Amino acid sequence: MTSNEEQQFLQDLDKKLWNAADKLRSTLDASQYKHTVLGLVFIKYVSDSFKIRQDELTAQFKDPEHDYYLDPDDFGGIDSNEYKAELLEELEQRDYYKEVNVFWVPADARWKFLQDNNKTVIGGAELQLSDGADGKKRVKKFNSVGHLIDNALDAIEAENLKLKGVLNKLYTRLQIDQTKLGELIDLVATIPFAHASLNSKDILGHVYEYMLGQFALAEGKKGGQFYTPKSIVSLMVQMLEPFKGRVYDPAMGSGGFFVQSEHFINAHKGKIGDVSIYGQEYNHTTWQLAAMNMAIRGIDFNFGKEPANTYTNDQHPDLRADYVMANPPFNMKEWDAGVSENDPRWKYGTPPSGNANFAWLQHMLYHLAPNGSLGLLLANGSMSSNTNNEGTIRQKLIEEDLVECMVALPGQLFTNTQIPACIWFLTKNKGERTTASGRKLRDRKGKVLFIDARNLGFMKDRVLRDFTAEDLSQVTDAFHNWQEGENYEDVAGFVKSASLEDVTKHDFVLTPGRYVGAADVEEDSEPFAEKMARLTTQLKGQFDESDRLEAEIKNNLAGLGYEC
Question: For residue 222, what pLDDT is reported?
């Protein structure tokens, strides 16, 4: 939980970031300026992190108590050119940075170089570059500010294998006034990635979450394809508890589930190194965003060799994950071009061409380990539709006892769609076992938990609803208590534990509202006739008082010379 001072710092940072985006809004569409701003923010972040490490090293080189101490007497004294040259040379040694997981940033990719030269290169200019530790100088011609930025991204990517193919080098191709791009560099220069109590990676993480959310709003429906509201991601992560093992998202977007998994693990004193991250994404620029999101957080990841279609080019064919989480596109049509009807993933039935909901679900089940759990966000129609084999597939999933919990969500949670949504939680093992987080699960075979969360949340503005921390805990606690068999009881209108026989009676429809019923209403003990008489008398008294006050106001106004 951040302090008030930290929250104010982040809010001020948000304003600067959106001001940066506004500088480009009139000349670029939302999808372009998203990557334009985020690319510059990334260079600023790695440069700041590099400078912070440089300052640490400088202090260590001068500290007699530190292993890295450089004795000035060995180089002709503290004021000698030899000693100063030795310090500079040591500061350019890559190993010092890689040992603490800081990206190596070449001299011509550092933020100071961009800021010092962004106006010089407008119209073209030759700049002198340093190759670093060997002190050699070279000259390179830059044709524009965009060329200057793309060169920086190329240099960073070439020196850091984790970033190969990740950075979006598009600035030379941008149809934008070069002066405006230079102004944007100067504005991003004011964004601080250093704070007394906030980690630089946490600040950048906030930047990414904020910017992705704002861009999703700006882009509308298209932008929402890669952005899942943070509260929904948090809910799914809290319910599944991905503490240890393989975590997989076959429609990962910008990597939100992985980020929230990291937050969850850190909050519960776990180790992010105990988790292996696997993902897949079809959109190339979104795949880049996800990879960059992991890289800046120091999280090892495997997103396959390339961006690819999950159905026709599965990047992880042999993966069996302990946790699978996803928010794929709702009701996706024409998804099955090039996919065989005999695909081994369609164990419970061939999904219809006009809707990919049960294709996503079965793909995730196919990649789920024997003791694994999955959470999948789908449109509400998936819980009840009987068209084109969907009802048959859902029935088989229920009869195989794979469905563990269904959560109905409130409306207006998404920036890009008003389609009502739900969360499916499935597992291949409802028997007794101990989770990676240490919770002891009871035998839940033949049982399904239904949670109706449609009345939870609050309107954070005129358009969007959000969950409070208490809302998330209420749903998570109900699920975990039911799994453990302790402190659980059905609550009318909210949560119900049903048997497979109950679900069969409802024709295999999984809509929670069918099972939880209506909330209990406190019985009115006052007889109707007496209540009506009391309220009528009360209303007559209020009318009489209104008449009295009106007459008094008229008398007061008449005394002041006003006619009524």
Answer: 46
